[in-house]
What we know:
alpha+beta; four-stranded antiparallel beta sheet; three-stranded antiparallel beta sheet; about 30% strand
Amino acid sequence: MAQLKQYDQAGTHRLIPAKYGAESVLEGLPLPINVLADLSELDAATNERRIAERGGNSALGPGELLLGVPEAHIVNAAFSHHGPYGGRFHGRERGAWYAGFEIETSAAEVAFHKRRFLIEGRMQGKHTFDYIEFLADFSGWFHTLDASERESCLQPGPVPQCYGSSQGLAHKLLHEGSNGIVYPSVRRPGGTCIACFRPALVFHPRRGQKYRLTVETSADKIEFEAAPSNS
Length: 231
């Protein structure tokens, strides 16, 4: 059975696609003001983060989300953009903040899903993507997995079917008041990940370096390096 353990972990790493680093994807578009205004209304009506911030997500109260702090939109987006199948430790109604204790762990986790996306899209060869690193600190009690839970919840595939047990455990712990789960990385042996269930516990979110990630669909290897300063 999952056990509680206290963690004081500073500088965990989350990689966000560079194009999502702005408050809105509309920022910087060379369009007339009236066109941008119309697009902003459409964005506000369809953007899952903005809907959640207005109280439109029944599984995520607007009082849980961050307001008036740096990078609030990045944190809120992690909890409101949950994906059609959820993730390893979140379901289809409410997201979580995932991060690696090591930057290499975050890169390996992101690369796995990016390669899977490319293969499903029948895109071959090498593809390069830019990311922004977001650092955050965690201090509090988080659950860890026992041996049987590691076996059932950390299956490498197939995705998303392998998430059944882990989503069930996460749902149970969330509604029992858990702050989240610290667990061994599935994609990088020896790495450690955290799935935080509470936006308020993502402390001091801040931007780190820009990185460039290259994945190859035909091989399980990546190239990961700091992005050029002008990118």
